[in-house]
């Protein structure tokens, strides 16, 4: 499980580094921005409060958009970004659990806030 989380974190960090590169095509930047917006904005195809299906659309759509963005990257940009990502991962091993905890905390707070707003 930890190995899988590290791999996902490495790839996400590499994509972030690649998107800041000026050689990255605009289409890749747009797809990554759409994935981020879809993940963060409260507007979804299926509301998150719908049991299982509400989160399932996020789990399918966001990684698909990110994978499409990664596929449009030039090979030198992707290679350089992956090397940079591995370097950060080696220097900051605490970053993975800290990021996971932060994301889980923010999602919990968001869910609690929505639940309270709908319950009032």
From TrEMBL:
It is a multi-pass membrane protein. Residues 28-63 form the DUF1232 domain. It holds the Pfam family DUF1232. InterPro entries: DUF1232 (IPR010652). Signal peptide: none annotated. The chain crosses the membrane at residues 94-115. Keywords: Membrane, Transmembrane, Transmembrane helix. GO terms for cellular component: endomembrane system. It is found in: Endomembrane system. This is DUF1232 domain-containing protein. It comes from Deinococcus grandis.
């Amino acid at each position: 499980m930890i190995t899988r989380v590290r791999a996902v974190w490495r790839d996400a960090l590499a994509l972030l580094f690649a998107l800041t590169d000026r050689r990255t095509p605009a289409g890749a930047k747009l797809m990554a921005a759409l994935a981020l917006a879809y993940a963060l904005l409260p507007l979804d195809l299926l509301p998150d409060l719908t049991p299982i299906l509400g989160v399932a659309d996020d789990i399918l759509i966001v990684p698909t958009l990110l994978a499409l963005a990664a596929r449009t990257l030039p090979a030198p940009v992707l290679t350089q970004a992956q090397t940079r990502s591995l370097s950060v991962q080696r220097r900051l091993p605490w970053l993975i659990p800290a990021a996971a905890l932060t994301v889980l905390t923010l999602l919990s707070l968001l869910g609690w806030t929505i639940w309270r707003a709908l319950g009032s």
